[in-house]
């Protein structure tokens, strides 16, 4: 067996906190519904113990699993024993090792002797009333279905009075509090433990290694058919890259319902900082099991140990949070917001961008971006293909990564549409609902004051004309002059389809009335959102002279009156003209 627990004398912990039985037996009885009962016992030598248990289930094990709620052993009231050191199940009640109870339909009896090695053990009894139908081989037969329909659920009470487990021939026995105190001692001795995680939680904690080491990951969660619902993962705190993730097809059956999964593996970690995450959905956890629990229910979550007894814990320290390194925080955002904030980097710097927004089918609807404060050039944007599942509804998307920026000034933006946000979710919220928006952090542990300063916005001296946030049925214009032949950048957003523009801009020679430039559909590209949102962003040459910039909209789909998904950069709906500097 693999030793998960080391450097802890289990017997000493038990004896310090135990209630010790005088009759060399341990008993669990008076069973209720949706309960897990726990006791402990020790054996001073290899021993044959006597064991009697009464539980309940069907008359045969499942040959095929029909849904993730089912337990292949087909029992819903049963006992089992764990080795307290290895956390491995060493015995449990099954259909195969029990017999019918002649007096009570569906009750099953185990009465026999089993051999256990010298050591410390945990005795469990679980009773979870099944709430699903599995015709042919599952728990609920026709009588129970009819009883459920007509409100007769006395069948549970009629059987549970006999449910119990009794172990005889042990050295010492311990109550539930004693066993849980021992389990807590085990968790406290670990490098890190995020356990007994309840419903709808998203928790994390970090650790640092002063040198490379092999670590053992012990994680329990919920998953089925290559999908995990409750799971853990570990990222490199500096690069934000995942170094380990709990995957259903790389996990093993953890006992109880088929969806209970366990990972128990050793991997090598390089010197560095790490963040450990664990998330749960809204059911089946330590809050309340909606199907048979795993064999090791109080370790639901993730625990990390040194790989062996020689592991040097002095190389491990708690990871210092990067909260003090925050540069920008635009989060907890509601519907229809358009927010931005700037910062200036004194020197080239790696920054961490953490953004949660809404997207589906390759497009983002609530999203962020970073642009150069002087040129308006977009340096980074939250693209759907770069995001990952943020928990909850599939449209909740997360970007958590590192980008490098040169010295200079930058503007961080985030926009939301008219639905599904921190203000009012129309589907399941993400793991980290308060993170809806964008946050930017300095990486590393240097003095942020020597790297970042507040950006003091000024009107860009390169802007010649800005006609933006144009609504329906508007025709706006502005005159400008050029003293010499110039390169100008035109940034224009408008509406167009099938080679025709409906909201668009153009430039007219003031003296002749000739149109010298026009926003033609063929020169535009998609601007995000609906396909009719079009973007022109190019550099042209204009002679010295006097000009008029125009922008015109039709009677629908313009700034704040969108009838389809708006573009990514909705606030700049209109036209902006800049002097273009090649340098």
Task: Provide an overview of this structure.
By secondary structure, the protein is mainly beta. The chain has four domains: 10-179, no CATH class; 190-318, Jelly Rolls (Sandwich), CATH 2.60.120; 322-454, Jelly Rolls (Sandwich); 463-579, Jelly Rolls, CATH 2.60.120. Helices cover 6% and strands 46% of the residues. It is built from four helices and 39 strands. Strands 1, 2, 3, 4, 5, 6, 7, 8, 9 and 10 form a ten-stranded antiparallel β-sheet that branches. Helix 1 (10-17) packs across helix 4. The protein is elongated. The N and C termini lie far apart (67 Å). Residues 17-22, 133-143 and 148-152 have low confidence and may be disordered.
Percentage of β-strand residues: over 45%
Measured as a percent range, the helix fraction is under 10%
Strands, total number: 39
- Ranges where pLDDT stays below 50 over 5 or more residues in a row are 17-22, 133-143, 148-152
Outline: elongated
Give the CA-CA distance, first to last residue: 67 Å
The number of helices is 4
CA gyration radius, whole angstroms = 32 Å
Count of discrete structural domains: 4
Mean pLDDT score = 88
Biggest beta-sheet profile: 10 strands, antiparallel
Strand-pairing-aware structural class: mainly beta
Multimeric status of the protein: single chain
Tell me the layout of helices and strands.
Blueprint: H1 10-17, E1 25-28, E2 35-43, E3 47-57, E4 75-83, E5 89-92, E6 99-100, E7 107-116, E8 119-127, H2 142-149, H3 154-160, E9 164-168, E10 172-174, H4 176-189, E11 192-195, E12 202-209, E13 213-224, E14 227-236, E15 242-245, E16 252-253, E17 260-269, E18 272-279, E19 301-306, E20 316-318, E21 326-330, E22 338-345, E23 349-360, E24 363-372, E25 378-381, E26 388-389, E27 396-405, E28 408-415, E29 437-442, E30 452-454, E31 463-468, E32 475-482, E33 486-497, E34 500-509, E35 515-518, E36 525-526, E37 533-542, E38 545-552, E39 574-579
Antiparallel strand pairs: 1-9, 2-8, 2-10, 3-4, 3-7, 3-9, 4-5, 4-8, 6-7, 11-19, 12-18, 12-20, 13-14, 13-17, 13-19, 14-15, 14-18, 16-17, 21-29, 22-28, 22-30, 23-24, 23-27, 23-29, 24-25, 24-28, 26-27, 31-39, 32-38, 33-34, 33-37, 33-39, 34-35, 34-38, 36-37
Helix pairs in contact: 1-4
């Amino acid at each position: 067996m693999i030793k998960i627990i080391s450097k802890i004398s289990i017997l000493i912990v038990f004896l310090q906190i135990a209630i010790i039985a005088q009759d060399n037996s341990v008993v669990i009885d008076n069973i209720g519904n949706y309960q897990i009962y726990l006791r402990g016992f020790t054996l001073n030598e290899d021993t044959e113990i006597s064991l009697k248990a009464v539980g309940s289930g069907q008359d045969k094990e499942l040959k095929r699993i029909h849904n993730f709620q089912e337990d292949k052993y087909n029992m819903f009231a049963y006992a089992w024993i764990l080795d307290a050191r290895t956390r491995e199940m060493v015995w449990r009640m099954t259909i195969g090792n029990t017999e019918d109870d002649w007096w009570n339909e569906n009750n099953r009896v185990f009465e026999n002797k089993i051999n256990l090695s010298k050591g410390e053990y945990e005795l469990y009894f679980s009773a979870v009333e099944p709430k699903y139908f599995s015709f042919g081989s599952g728990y609920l037969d026709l009588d129970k279905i009819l009883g459920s329909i007509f409100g007769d659920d006395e069948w549970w009470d009629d059987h549970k009075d006999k449910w119990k487990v009794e172990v005889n021939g042990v050295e010492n026995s311990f109550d539930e509090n004693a066993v849980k105190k021992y389990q807590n001692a085990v968790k406290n001795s670990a490098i890190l433990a995020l356990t007994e995680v309840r419903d709808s939680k998203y928790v994390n904690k970090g650790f640092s290694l002063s040198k490379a080491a092999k670590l053992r990951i012990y994680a329990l969660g919920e998953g089925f058919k290559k999908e995990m619902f409750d799971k853990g993962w570990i990222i490199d705190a500096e690069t934000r890259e995942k170094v380990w993730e709990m995957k259903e097809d790389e996990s093993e059956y953890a006992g109880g319902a088929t969806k209970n999964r366990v990972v128990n593996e050793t991997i090598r970690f390089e010197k560095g900082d790490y963040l450990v995450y664990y998330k749960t959905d809204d059911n089946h956890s330590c809050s309340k099991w909606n199907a048979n629990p795993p064999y090791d229910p109080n370790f639901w979550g993730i625990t990390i140990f040194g790989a062996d007894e020689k592991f040097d814990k002095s190389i491990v320290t708690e990871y210092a949070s990067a909260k003090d390194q925050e540069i920008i925080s635009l989060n907890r955002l509601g519907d229809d917001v358009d927010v931005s904030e700037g910062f200036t980097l004194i020197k080239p710097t790696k920054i961490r961008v953490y953004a949660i927004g809404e997207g589906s089918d390759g497009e983002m609807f609530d999203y962020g971006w970073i642009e150069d404060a002087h040129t308006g050039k977009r340096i980074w944007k939250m693209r759907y293909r770069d995001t990952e599942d943020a928990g909850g509804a599939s449209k909740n998307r997360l970007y958590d990564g590192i980008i490098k920026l040169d010295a200079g000034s930058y503007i961080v933006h985030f926009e939301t549409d008219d639905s599904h946000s921190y203000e009012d979710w129309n589907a399941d919220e993400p793991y980290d609902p308060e993170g809806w928006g964008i946050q930017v952090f300095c990486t590393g542990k240097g003095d942020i004051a020597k790297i970042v300063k507040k950006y003091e916005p000024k009107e860009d001296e390169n802007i010649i004309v800005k006609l933006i946030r144009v609504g329906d049925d508007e025709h706006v214009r502005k005159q400008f002059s050029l003293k010499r032949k110039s390169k100008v950048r035109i940034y224009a957003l408008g509406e167009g389809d099938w080679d025709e523009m409906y909201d668009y801009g153009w430039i007219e020679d003031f003296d002749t009335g000739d149109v010298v430039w026009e926003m033609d559909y063929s020169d535009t590209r998609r601007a995000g959102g609906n396909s009719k949102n079009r973007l022109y962003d190019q550099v042209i040459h204009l002679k010295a002279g006097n000009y008029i910039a125009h922008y015109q909209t039709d009677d629908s789909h313009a700034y704040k009156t969108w009838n389809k998904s708006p573009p990514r950069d909705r606030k700049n709906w209109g036209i902006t003209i800049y002097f273009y500097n090649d340098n």
